[in-house]
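hey m, so remember when u said the tokens were messed up on ur end? i reran from scratch. heres the input so u can diff it against urs
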Amino acid sequence: MYVDDEGVLTSEFTLSDRHQGPPGHAHGGASAAILDEVMGLVVWAAGHKVLAANININYRKPLPLHQPLLAEARITEVAERKIISEGKIILPDSTVAVEGSGVYVIASRFFEKAIMNGANS
């Protein structure tokens, strides 16, 4: 995964048979988990300790197995107690197959004793 200077997180990945739902394609839960991960990680990468409060997923096309895919996420809104991010999974031909948005709430107290990057946070 990589976060660029504009705050866009990108990740290349390939789904395997263990992610299968319909024959030759990923289970919708795998796509939702990937988007939850990248949408949450882009918020964490910006320095916010959050938990997911709501996630919306829109399935446009099935995700093929054994092909390189790209996930992207960005923060679209920062408020006092919540942060909204959006994400998408892109097929090799640049078609957006799955997209979503997430509301993440500031929850620093849940992470007071967590060890992150080898140091207490």
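this time it looks ok to me. Residues 44 and 94 are 26 Å apart (CA to CA). if urs says something different then somethings off w ur setup not the seq
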